[in-house]
Amino acid sequence: MLEAANNNELPPIPAKRYFTIGEVSELCGVKPHVLRYWEQEFPQVKPVKRRGNRRYYQRQDVIIIRQIRSLLYEQGFTIGGARQRLSGEGAKEDLNQSQQVIHQVRLELEEIYHLLRR
Question: 4-13 contacts: CB < 8 A, separation 24 or more?
Fold first, then answer.
């Protein structure tokens, strides 16, 4: 969903497990108060909250926020339209990804099985 042209404008996502709201703000090109608002509007964005209600976003959250940013700012969707688009496409993508993971695991298990039979 995130187009390559839009991706080039944003910095690459570092290989970290958790990101602070400030880091996500820089990675996605939106201000922290916008991220807090989007948490309320999009159920897909669920940062982990720790001490003192500090938010820690995971890589998947950053990717979803970039998709939301693209829908709202580049593609001209309303918040309701973006929410609907994410829920519809997100469900299809999750199913497709799950099927791919299951297929990959099955192939790896078959390889292990053949190695053990030797």
Answer: 6/66, 6/70, 6/74, 7/66, 10/66, 13/59, 13/62, 13/63
Give the global pTM: 0.67
Number of domains comprising the chain: 1
Q: Are 17 and 58 in contact (CB under 8 A)?
A: yes
Which domain covers residue 33, as residue numbers?
A: 4-117
pLDDT by residue for the chain (118 residues), tens digit each? 444 444 557 888 888 899 999 999 999 999 999 999 999 999 999 999 988 889 999 999 999 999 999 999 999 999 998 988 888 765 566 566 677 778 888 888 998 999 999 8
CATH code for the domain of 68: 1.10.1660.10
